[in-house]
Specification:
31% of the residues lie in helices and 30% in strands. It is α+β, with helices and mostly antiparallel strands. The chain has one domain: Gcn5-related N-acetyltransferase (GNAT) (Aminopeptidase), CATH 3.40.630.
Length: 186
Amino acid sequence: MGEQAVVVRPAALGDAERIAEVRVAAWQTAYRGLIPDDVLDRMDAVAEGQRRRELWGRSRDPRVVELVAELDGTVVAAAVVGPERPVDDERPRAVETAPERGQLYAINAAPEAWRRGVGSALLAAAEDALRAGGFTSAVLWVLEGNERAARFYDRWGWVEDGVTQRDESLTPGHELFERRRTKPLG
C-alpha cells in the first residue's frame, strides 16, 4: 500500500468531536510517564468535543486559526495558532510577549498518524497561517521531558530560548514545566 497524501485544511465545527478524540489519544500516548496517569485516564473525548462545539461560535481574534490534517478523508491531527499568550506563572520574566510574535498553541496527531508526514505537513501549514496573520516570529511550549516533540521541533528550526514556565492547570498538585522554543518566520 502506498503513502497516503496528507490534506491540511481549516477546521470546521463538524470536526470538533474528532479533534477531541485525536487530542485525547495523542496525550494519553505521548505524555504517559510525563503527566500523572490519573490525569491522562480522566481525559474525556466526548466532554471535550462538546466543549469545543460550544466554544466554536464565540468571537475571537481573526488571527487565531485552527487547522486539521486528514489521511484518506479522516482527521488525524489538529493545530491551533494565533497571537502569543502571556506566560502564565507569576515569576518575573526577562522576555515579554510582543505583538508581532505568534504562537503555536497546540499540535496533536493521533498515534496511528505518527511518522507518516502528518505532523510535518500540519506544522508547515501552521507556520504559513502565522505568517498570514502578520507575525514575524513565533513561540511554542514543549513539556519538559517530551523528547519526541523536542526532536520534531529541532528538525523544523524551533530553538529553545531558555524561558520556562510552570503549568499546574491540568495537574493540580503536580508541577509540570514547559520550555519555550522560538522561530523567526521571515
